[in-house]
Specification:
single chain; alpha/beta; 5-stranded mixed sheet; 9 strands
């Protein structure tokens, strides 16, 4: 069975993110290894992972190397650190790229239909829709957003691993 996972703000290769977000790693290599290992211990090669932006901040060669190490079909919603072209992410990294937002429906375990919008940054949504986002890392959600309908999946909030949606 194919599972669906979500994650945001891995920032692979980005040394300064360790201090910016108080990540519990001594080096960028330790951070990268932990995130990749956590990912591959959860995600199977046939699973789907929605990455909600800020995948890596490093050279193109290293970004491709990170992508090649990860299990699953990765659907990337571009964040503010995806500075390369869509063509690069699709052709060189093997990702499927969505420019800004993705709307979807999902049936949860008790049979209830949930409506989601995946985005990099928190976004305004109608009352009956859940916004799953990244961008804010481990900082508080802006008070203009409802915390009951906005879920942050930045790695600082998910123990540095993807979380299962379905």
């Amino acid at each position: 069975m194919q599972n669906i996972y979500i994650i945001a703000d891995t920032h692979l290769g980005h040394e300064n993110i360790i201090k910016y977000c108080n990540r519990p790693f001594k080096t960028v290599e330790e951070m990268d290894y932990t995130i990749i290992d956590n990912w591959n211990n959860i995600v199977d090669k046939n699973d789907v992972v929605y990455h909600l932006g800020d995948f890596a901040l490093t050279t193109k060669e290293k970004i491709v190397n990170y992508a090649e190490q990860l299990n699953g079909h990765i659907i990337l919603i571009r964040g503010n650190h995806e500075r390369s072209s869509i063509k690069f992410y699709e052709e060189e990294c093997g990702f499927e790229v969505i420019r800004t937002k993705y709307w979807t429906l999902a049936i949860n375990n008790d049979g209830k239909l949930n409506k989601y919008v995946f985005s990099h940054k928190p976004t305004e949504v109608p009352e009956d829709i859940i916004n799953i986002h990244g961008h804010i890392h481990n900082y508080p959600l802006d008070s203009k957003f409802d915390s009951d309908t906005h879920i942050c999946v930045s790695v600082e909030m998910t123990d540095y691993k993807p979380i299962k949606l379905l």
